[in-house]
Amino acid sequence: MAEITLDVCQLQAFAEVGYQVAGGGDAHGAMAALRRVIPLDAYEFVAFDPATGRHHSVVSDGHRRIDRDAAEEYAGLDAYRRAMATRAPVSMPEPDTERYFRRHLAPYGWRAGLTAPLFLREGRYTGLLHLASREAFPHLTGALVAAVSPMLAHVTDLTRCVIDPVGLPPDFRAVAFDRLGTRREVPGRETSAALWDEPAMAAYARAFIDSRELTRHGLWLDDGGHWHELRLLRAGVGFQGALQGVVAAERPCALPYELTGREVDVLTRVAAGDSNPQIAAALVLSVRTVTTHLEHIFAKLGCDSRTRLTTKALAEGLCRLDV
User: Fold this and answer.
1) pLDDT digits over 166-194, tens only?
2) Which of 9, 10, 190, 263 could form a cystine bridge with 173, CB 3.0-4.6 A?
3) What backbone torsions phi and psi does residue 191 show, to the nearest 5 degrees?
4) What superkingdom heads the lineage (predicted)?
5) pLDDT band with cut points at 50, 70 and 90 for residue 68
């Protein structure tokens, strides 16, 4: 049996360096570092998706990935509940894991397995790491894997979003959406309760994803009658940003330029290219009332033509976004 001669502190520092050199998110680079001190023949990362409550195989080496049913099967074992309670790796085969071992490890010739729950430093669970070997693991393997598991937990963190921070001020609260309408928190951002709880936001986000726009910026009136500055940015969501998505971000605001809500509606129609009669019909107003609103808007924004008014409205996000 191979013996491990590196102590836990040294391994933790070594794995951290390997993980960072690999790019801060590459599982194979991190495991290459781990393999130098732990003899293993195969590994698999299984991510827990908090948006769906299910487990998904995301990265593997040494054998084929297990399917979704197998990932969920392990989560139903007493061994999984024991690992979650103790936050310590569980060896296989052991009582309660024999059937799983025979079905998913033994056919590949593995004699030993080890499964570690992955928790970030702040205590959030992100998934599992399965290890397999044709020989019995050295007795310190569990302790060493437990030591590096908080770093490896970043590999299975499906809440991460890959976004371009340019144009998104730090005081915006945000929520990420994929095309299926699944909501996710955006790391480093306060979650927007207003966007999270808005029933129509998922469909609005999907329409944005399907458009050719890279960003969208405007004003949003929530159901409570409060105005928000709203921005949408294209983003990759899920594991390493693999899914098409969008980050929707907002902050409460007063209407700019002392505009009224009705003036914002008229301005939005002007920017869409509507004539005064068309605006009047859409907003159920008289043409004279629309003309009066426009006179006020021109004065407040300091514009002397509809073209300049439209350019300013689009550039500064003064149009209403109908979520």
Assistant:
1) 567 889 999 999 888 888 888 778 999 99
2) 190
3) -75, 135
4) Bacteria
5) low
- Residue 237 φ then ψ, to 5°: -120, 170
For 279, the token pair is 């605006």
Residue whose C-alpha is closest to residue 253's, from 300, 286, 218: 218
Candidate ranges 14-23, 36-45, 235-244; pick with highest mean pLDDT: 36-45
- Which residue type sits at 222? D
- Assess contact for 141 and 39: CB atoms under 8 A: no
pTM of the model: 0.65
Taking the C-alpha atoms of residue 285 and residue 170, their distance in angstroms, rounded to an integer, is 39
One-letter amino acid of 125:
Y
**How far apart (Å, rounded) are the C-alpha atoms in residues 269 and 272?**
5
Question: Is residue 49 classed as helix, strand or coil in its secondary structure?
Answer: strand
- Cβ neighbourhood burial of 125 (10 Å; 0-12, 13-18, 19+): middle
Q: Which two tokens stand for residue 306?
A: 């509809």
Per-residue pLDDT, 273: 95
**All domains of the chain, ordered by start, with CATH?**
8-152 (3.30.450.40), 161-252 (3.30.450.20), 257-316 (1.10.10.10)
38: Cα separation from own chain's centroid: 32
Q: Maximum distance among all alpha carbons in the chain?
A: 90
